[in-house]
Every structure is written in C-alpha cells, then in structure tokens.
Amino acid sequence: MYRTHTNGELRASHIGQEVTLSGWIQKSRDKGFIIWADLRDRYGITQLVFDEERTPKKMMEQAAHLGREFVVQVKGKVIERESKNSNMATGDIEILVSEVIILNKSLTPPFTIEDETDGGEDLRMKYRYLDIRRNPVRENLIFRHKVSMAVRNYLSAEGFVDVETPYLIKSTPEGARDFVVPSRMNEGQFYALPQSPQTFKQLLMVGGLDKYFQIVKCFRDEDLRADRQPEFTQIDCEMAFIEQEDILNMFEGLTRHLLKEINGVEIGDFPRMQYDDAMAKYGNDKPDIRFGMEFGELNAVAQHKDFGVFNNAELVVGIAVPGGNSYTRKEIDKLIDWVKRPQVGALGMVYSRCNDDGSFKSSVDKFYDQDDLAKWAEVTGAKTGDLICILSGDTNKVRAQLSALRMELAERLGLRNPKEFAPLWVIDFPLLELDEETGHYHAMHHPFTSPKPGQIELLDTNPGDVKANAYDLVLNGNEIGGGSIRIHDKATQAIMLKHLGFSDEEARAQFGFLMDAFEYGAPPHGGLAFGLDRLVSILGGQETIRDFIAFPKNNRGRDVMIDAPAPLDQEQLNELNLQLNLKKND
Amino acid sequence: MYRTHTNGELRASHIGQEVTLSGWIQKSRDKGFIIWADLRDRYGITQLVFDEERTPKKMMEQAAHLGREFVVQVKGKVIERESKNSNMATGDIEILVSEVIILNKSLTPPFTIEDETDGGEDLRMKYRYLDIRRNPVRENLIFRHKVSMAVRNYLSAEGFVDVETPYLIKSTPEGARDFVVPSRMNEGQFYALPQSPQTFKQLLMVGGLDKYFQIVKCFRDEDLRADRQPEFTQIDCEMAFIEQEDILNMFEGLTRHLLKEINGVEIGDFPRMQYDDAMAKYGNDKPDIRFGMEFGELNAVAQHKDFGVFNNAELVVGIAVPGGNSYTRKEIDKLIDWVKRPQVGALGMVYSRCNDDGSFKSSVDKFYDQDDLAKWAEVTGAKTGDLICILSGDTNKVRAQLSALRMELAERLGLRNPKEFAPLWVIDFPLLELDEETGHYHAMHHPFTSPKPGQIELLDTNPGDVKANAYDLVLNGNEIGGGSIRIHDKATQAIMLKHLGFSDEEARAQFGFLMDAFEYGAPPHGGLAFGLDRLVSILGGQETIRDFIAFPKNNRGRDVMIDAPAPLDQEQLNELNLQLNLKKND
C-alpha cells in the first residue's frame, strides 16, 4: 500500500497518527539543521519535516537531495505545526518523517509546476503530462468531468438513452471536409469519421428510440483557426414526437440545471430572440446580452442630409458607448484605427460625443445640427457622458463590423463578466445561406433541417427568405448549442437536396439509406447538439477551449507531445493499397 | 404537443380521461363493425378501438386503412376494456378514438416488427432502424445504457476522473494493425486511430491525475472473426500509487456493484487463480467455473503401459462428464468425430465408462485393467455413471482441445446457465508469449506491462518463464477485463522494448514521448480495461456482442445499412495527396 492518506486529507485531528503518504516533491527549504519539503498529489500538499534532533543523519542527507518532482513515499507521524498556514487545508500539521522511499527520480522539469508557470504554450504542450500536474489544468479537467457527469445524469433521468453510434462511417460531401480511413479489407474504399452522428441519431428516431443522447467525438478536417480542434466533443441529442417548443424547454432545463449544479447560479426562463432581430440589434446571431449597447439604425435620421458617405450606404447604424465621452481625441482616433484593421474592415467611423451640458459634438458637425444629433442619441439610447459610434455601408458587412466594435468595447469596459451568465435562444434561422463566392445557396444548419410550415414553396422564388425550424442556444456571446426540427418525409428531403444542388443520383448515393428509412414510418423528430468543449470553457469562466482538453492539437492539427501525424512505413501503405502522391514530386 | 401520455402509461385509473397518443400501428383487427388497432412506442402498446356505433363513418374508413408501421397521432377517451389482457401493462383499458392524424405512412416492412421476427440477419442489418423497433433489440440498447451509467457513476463516486483522450494519434506497430487517417494539412503523414488509449492513460498518471476512467471507442484493423468488430468499446481505467492488490479490489468492487445493480445478484469475494493453474485445470486462461469437469492429468497413471499413443504424448489429460455413461456407443462416436473436427483438431479420444456397479469399461481395455481405470476415475474425479474423456498429445494443443470439449459438453448438459454468474481473477500471466510461426517472443499483454519483481534478469535466459504483474477478469468463461501494473521507469521500459525486438531508434520514434515522461517523476501505476460490448452481452445473459451494438458491422467490416466503406472521389484523394494502388492494376 503506497499511502494511508492523500496529501489533502490530514488535519489537526490526525495529530499523533502514523501515516504513509506518497506524491511529488513540490519544493523544499533546507536550513541545514531543519529541512521542510512540500509533498504534492492531486488532492493537495502536505508539509514534511526533517530535523537534526529527531531525524537520523542519513535521512537528513537523503532529504537534502530530494529534487523537485521526485516521486517519494514517506512514513511518519502527524505533528502539530509551529507556524500554522491557514491558506492550506493541511496547514495545521506536518509530518515528522521516519522513512523515505524514492519511488522515482525526476529531471528538472522544463517549466515550473506552479499555478503561474514560466512555461510558454509550446513547451507546455510538448510536456503536457507535466502541465497537467499544475492545479489550473488539473482543475479544468476535473471540472469537465463534473459537467459531463451532470449532463449524463440529467438526461438519463429524463429518459434519454445513451447510444454509441459508429465512428467508421461514410464520407458525405457536405459541410466541412471529412477525415477518411482507408479500408484494408475493402480494397480502394474508405470510411469517413463522423462530422456528427446526425444521420444515425435520426435513424434511432425512426427506430423508435424516442430520446437519444451521446457525448461523442466528432471530426472536421478544416483549416484550423485559433481555438478550433480537428476533433471535438459534442453532447448530441435527439427526440421524437416533439415540436420545437418541447426541444427548447428540454434543453433549457438541462442548461439551467448545469448552471445551478456547476456554477450555483439560478436562471429563470431563457429569453428568445428571432434571428432577424439578433442581426438587427447586435449584428450577430450569437449576441452577448450581458450588457446593452444595442444597435440603433440611423438611416431615417442620418440620411438625406449632405453627408454622402451616409447617403450612399445601405445601412447607417450606431451604438452608445457608456461613459465614452471621457475618451480623449487620441483615444477615439485609436478606436477608428481599430475598426479600420483588416480583421474588422470598416472604412471609417463617425462619432458624436454626448456632453454633460446636453449638447453634442460630432465628427460630422458640418452636416448635422444639434437636433439631428439629439435624434441619433435617442435612437441609440445614448445618455449624457456617452459616445455614439456610427458605421455605415452594406448591411451584412456593417453589422459584422459594429458587432466586433461592440464586443471589443464591452471587453475594455469590463462588461463581459465571466461569472455572469446570460443564456438566450436565437430562433427562426434562415434555411439557406448564400455563398457569396459561388452564388449558390447552402444549408445554414444542415440539409436535414425542416423549413417552417408552408414556406417550402418559397424555395423556388425567394430561397433566402425561407425560415427554418432551427435554433441556437447562446451563452455569453458564444453559440453553445444548435439544432433543428428535421425533415421526416422523403419528398421534402428530396426537394431540399435538389435545392442544395444534389443530383438524384448523388442524393441516392449519399443519403439513400436515410431516404429509405423515411418510407418506413419515420416519426416527427428533432434535436440539438451542444459543443462540450465550448460549453465547459464558458461555464468555467474562460474562453479558450484548449485549456479544457486533456491533449489538444495545435493549429496545424499536430499533437506536439506524441509528434503526430507521422509518416507511415511502406509496408503499411502497401497493405492499404495506397501510394503517396506528394505535390513536391509532381 | 404530440402526446399527453406514452403507450405504456395508461391504467384503469385513467378511465374517462381525454388523451392524445402517438406511435406506430403494430397491427389491427378489422371485424367490419369494430376495428381494433395496437399503437406502439418505446414504452409499450395501447389498444385503440373504433366502432360503428360511436365512431363516425369516415373515421371507420380511415381506421380500416391504417397499415402496419404507419405513424399516427390519435385523440380519444380512455375507456374500460371488455376483455382485459393481463399480459399487457395497459391491458385494462383501450382508447375510443375521436381523431386520427396520420403523421407518416409506411411501406410494408421487409420483416415483421415482432419479438420473434421472420427477418434474417442480413436483412435486419440492412434495415437496422426497423430492427431497433423490435423489443429485444431496443431492450438490449437500453440495457447497455444502464450498464454504462452504472459504471460511470460508480467510478466517479470512487474518485475517478473521466478524461477524453484523443482519437487522432500515432501509428504504433505493435499488437493489431492500426486504422490510419491521412492528414491533409501535414502532407504525406497519417494519424492512427487508437487501439486503446494506453499511452495517454499512462501519461495522465505521470500527470498526477491518480484515477482515470473513460468509456471509449477503440479500433483494430484485424481480419474479423465471428463476433469481432473493427470498432469496439472499452471501459478504460488507470490508477497511480497502487499495487496489483488495490486494482483487483477496486474493479472487483465495480463488477460486484454491476452484478447487484443490473442483475440483482450478490457475489462474495472473487476467486483468484494463477494462470498456470487455469491452464492445467481448464486448458484455458478464461475458464468457465460455473461447473466442474476439471482436468485430471493422467501421465503418471496412464503412461508406461503398452499404449503407445499415451506413452508418446507430452500430456495425457481427461475430464469426467457427469452422467456421461448414459451415452450410447453411437453418441460417443459422434463425440469422437466432434473432437476430430479441424476446429478442434484432436487425433482421437480415449474414453472410460464408469458403470453403476463400480466397474469400468474403456476403449483401451486391451492396455489397462480395472485398477488402472479406477485411478483414472480418481484423478478426474469421475463418479459412478460418468464418462471419462481423455485426450493426449502436445501440452498446449491438447489442453486447448480438451477445453473445447469441456465447453461443448457443458453447453449440451445445460451447465452454462446465463443467469448464473461466476467471476474469477486469473493472475500471474506470463510476460511474453512465443509466436510459434516466427519464433519471436511478443508481449502477452502489451509492452508496458511490468515483470514480477526480480524476474527481469530471466529475460535473457528464460524469457518464457518470466511472469508479469498482469491479470484478467473472467466471467462465465469470457475475458471481460484485463490489465497490468505498468513499467514506470525508463531503464526497464528500454529493456522490455529491446527484448521485443525494437531497435533503439524504433523505440525512440514510437515511444520516445512515454520514455521521456518516465524521466520526470512517473509514479507507480497500473490499470485495467473492460470490453464493454462483451461485458454487457454477458450481463444481459447472451454471448453475441452484435446484439448489444446499435449499428454493428458485418464480418467484412462493412456497415451494410449505410453501405460503408465506399470509394472516395478523385478530388478528395488529390487533396489528401494519395493515389490508389489497387492490386488488380499492378
């Protein structure tokens, strides 16, 4: 037996007991006549003491040579500590060591195993097993475990059945790129790894399973942006014999439960917002509603004056920045530079100061008088002391730009409090989305999403206007879940696939099994999937998903710790009937 | 809202209530003036009634046309049933229907949706979504869910942390073949899918996580035998600062908990058996100990007579078949044919009848007298009325043959009661196993398994004799789990890899990250993995894992429902820098 207690366990009540502890040497202090060492494990830290008077000389020497991160087992007696440390759970006691066994030595770690480490991101990823020893990383992993358990127990109690769907499935040329897996036994053929278990969960509904969930890995071979992972985890759910309202209520219940269980926060009914309203008020389909700064559309009050920039714009829209009138001219110029950065892309910014005396001072006073500016303040809800920031241009672009500015300013103003939680349903998404590059429409959610009743006829004439039975759950400006009511009849599914550009043959080859299934009594059904990585990071008050993944990949999709991916040897390639066709050799 | 109640819910106490139900038409009986239809969902069946007197004519017509597996929503009143059916939970009531909405029609299903279906295996796999509607399949999936939940909650309460390890990892040329995944972003390189999260769970121990578990998919590209799947599920566990005894106790606790929670069976301490004893007594490292028929080794009492077959054999070994003396000569001849089948491979079988009068009658009476045969009975534990069956030959082969015979006879004698559970630890496995084809030793468990203390020196001289800190959990003749105490220092790991034929370079390339990790304070650790598919099927009283997998693959590794794997299009191959190198085109 390696230990009688953990290093987080001993208290004053244990004084006098003989104990055995194991763990890592966090640090030691050697004063010659007395040596203290901190012994660490997952559960805490316990102070060991060796002193000239009570410790044999040989063991004093041994103690003097215990290096950082050595793994040791010690036996000894729990004694009262002279200088108690009320910051430590075990701070009332220490262990007078009678025996030390070195279980394993350690090289000096490449970075300090402390809450605030001196290791950079790359080094910590390469030695992730050492990074995991640090409290913040370990706590994140345990936090994730708690969220997963809470999700499973909640859904299970609600009658959902956890069903494992297969990972070796079929390539479907929609959405992102698939990762594929060559089959040795089926020459020249490939499996694909699931981008989501979408079709399988629908088939489970056709199979009468009624309520399904799974916490499941999904795979997308996308060019990685910051904070995207090629493999990620979904809480995948589906229900049959339900309407949109049932789904919203069920998963609002789950989210409320998590906020209460995990964060101790009680939230009432979640607000719901139409997609069109979210875009108009926040320029974004996942608005952060922890703070105001709602958009005010100024076309009616800012156009038809002599200011050509506004007159020629499709949309003139502004926000009131609370207390922004305190910004110096230089600060405002910097803000203008910020919106002109390529990542935001605005051509410029008009502003109007709301002075303490009720007057206004704008950057376009040549074109607008005080009455005009008062109307701007009214529309944007600006108060005395605020700064009104206005962008103009094409509706979609200018909304995205102003949304970026709104989020940046909120961040700077400290309005994005990670301990505050503001969930929101965004509903009535468009069914289709125009790809401006190709001019083609593609499914905004996925090809199995049903259009709103009676709107399918619009597909031919006004495809962009068709609304879907689709909904997203937004938390603090992040989409944490999304789903839809599905199509459950073959005819509608065929129309959808046709409008998405599938030939009959392609539709048959890719989704024939699903279309067949719809002919054998498919019930009405729908569902939702949460992004677990994102959900956990937001509940944890952080925004970087990588911090909540045990072994994340970098933004080249590499695991730098194990050095994967890696070349295959020729024999393996031969067995798989493959040869490399590298671009360099073309 | 599609329903106010499920179809398993209504009782006499609901009589008089107006309800809405949804589900599938299981069957209907049309007597002209009255029509009954059974409405089915996941929860049960409720009888619908339409009759001339109370049902409008139009609806009678509608009811007459409800086909099997149509999806309908009905509204109506709960009424008392005239002829109650005590076999159905809802058998006291029926629904007098006032409104029928057909939610979806159904073609006639290719097989009957009944507990005993007329559909063959292939057809049921192709239409798995219909197969899942059948009670036995659905119940198996829900049973699996219950086992998973019980496992997770037990381990979580014991302090284990569920950590998700990556799926896109590195090819390791050991054990079975890997499935690989070409990387588009890292040209010419491949990920591998995990055969198990072995190295990652060890790194989590190095990372101080102490107790880890995960229910996780694993992948092996093996030539599929019956009842093997290319993807399968493991309950994967690892602990640090533990000895073998701690692991055995912990997972004995888990298994005992499952048997109690899931099967209502209380089991005391699990017996433990040395690998060598299991092989000697049962010819098998996963003995079914629900029944006796232990091996009796007869060399001492059967050799050195004039019977050359026995004299020339390395091992002469027999079992007593309870009541086997009742077999006719013809039946015994059939048994001899059975052991001579290529799958078993014996050259013949000697037998001795234990007559009621205490005398013996053997097939080799020419060589052995009654005293000799009495000794055989003593050694095999045969009693009056039994039949002693004896095989002889090379030790390993003859043990396997007699083990097959023992299991076959037990099956025929009804001794393998699926409701009886007999768990067993098999311990002290050999570290290495000789591959008779290549003459090389390979790791019996895996290359990370530690040898018994003090035995590592034997590796050079008697590699086959080295025992490992390795153990299997056996239930009813099936290995349901296995694990080991791991090597946790770099030097020992290097020696092991060398003995397994890895050059320093290969060891470095494949396992360098793990060896590095061992240099930074790796704690003693070990673990175990359960095969969830197998565990669930045995707890469920069945032996076919396919019945407990939602969407299994056939023994060509194909999913016949979605028709995967499938060819990739050229564009995808190009993006992956691959070209096919099919054998046909060579």
From TrEMBL, chains A, B:
Main subcellular localisation: cytoplasm
Gene3D superfamilies the UniProt entry points to: Bira Bifunctional Protein, Domain 2, GAD-like domain, Nucleic acid-binding proteins
GO molecular function annotations of the record: aspartate-tRNA ligase activity; ATP binding; nucleic acid binding
GO cellular component entries: cytoplasm
Domain Aminoacyl-transfer RNA synthetases class-II family profile residues, every copy: 144-552
Pfam families: GAD, tRNA-synt_2, tRNA_anti-codon
EC number assigned by the record: 6.1.1.12
Keywords from the named record: Aminoacyl-tRNA synthetase, ATP-binding, Cytoplasm, Ligase, Nucleotide-binding, Protein biosynthesis
Family statement: Belongs to the class-II aminoacyl-tRNA synthetase family. Type 1 subfamily.
Task performed by this protein: Catalyzes the attachment of L-aspartate to tRNA(Asp) in a two-step reaction: L-aspartate is first activated by ATP to form Asp-AMP and then transferred to the acceptor end of tRNA(Asp).
Descriptive protein name: Aspartate--tRNA ligase
Organism: Patiriisocius marinistellae
Gene (name only): aspS
